[in-house]
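Researcher: For the annotation table, I need structure tokens for Aminoglycoside phosphotransferase domain-containing protein. Please keep the output clean. Sequence:
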Amino acid sequence: MDARIAKLLAAMPVGAVRSVAACASSGNNRTYKVQTEHRTLAVKQYFRHGDDTRDRLGTEFGFLSFAAQAAPGCAPAPLSMDCEESLAAYEFVEGRALAAAELQWTHVQAAIDFFLALNTPQARLLAKDLPPASEACFSVAGHLELVGRRVAGLAAGIPDTVDNSAAVALVQQLKTYWDALASRVLESAVAPDVLLAPAQRCLSPSDFGFHNALLQADQRLRFLDFEYAGWDDPAKLVGDFFAQLAVPVPAEYFDRFVAAIAAAFTDPQAVIARANLLRPVYQVKWCCIALNVFLPTHLARRQFANPGMDKAILQRRQVAKAQSIFQSLPTL
């Protein structure tokens, strides 16, 4: 790895590589803290798999290049990339993870400010050539199809073994709930097949939340991980923000957050209505995400990022998270 990192940094005025240390990871990729003669860098090695063809490196580097202009200082600066080696160098951000218990409105406001900076009229012009986000959805029917595929994939893909019994039972309950929810959302939606107008779409960091943020010593938040970013429905961003598992955002902030996000668009009431309609849809999605560790490709991604992880412990933890979300779903 040291030789590949040296190659990545060869054209940069950072001097010789002094040390390379792996950072703790619970995600999809490997990140290294690289100390060179002149500065400290973050080098990210991106996961590659034959069953997952997404260009994680290109997406993140491209989005961060855009964010450096639209919202300078809010995210790490992109510095260098090597597509052949699936490596990229970024500004190293010093900071600590936020715990759910310490989340306050000031932190949520920082996330709103970042989103709004990415979605000013000038920023949207800068981003006109950026691709859609991973799993972007631009109609209510599209959202339902996306989450429906996840539910069906779990139902068909988790082996029915003794070790998987809790996950299999939960997926059966989830599928029953999903069938009823999808029907209700489809009936409630106005023109569910109509695509969202470009003016109502947003530049989304995707996987947006405090699990992908660091709090610096000066109390400023910096946001990380943009490998799924791009153009998307703001209602999807809202649904993901409030359903993500690692650092849950208090539900009491939902209405204020949605109103602030919606204010960036020409029809804010439509954004608010769609975000409320799709909120339980994205809670189901995150139940599915929690259970992805029972699927081979997703498990391989976790093992790539953290080769020493205990599979059984991880899977038990993820079932508990999925059960917690499932129990919080609204009664139909």
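Researcher: And a one-line annotation?
Model: The longest helix spans residues 165-188.
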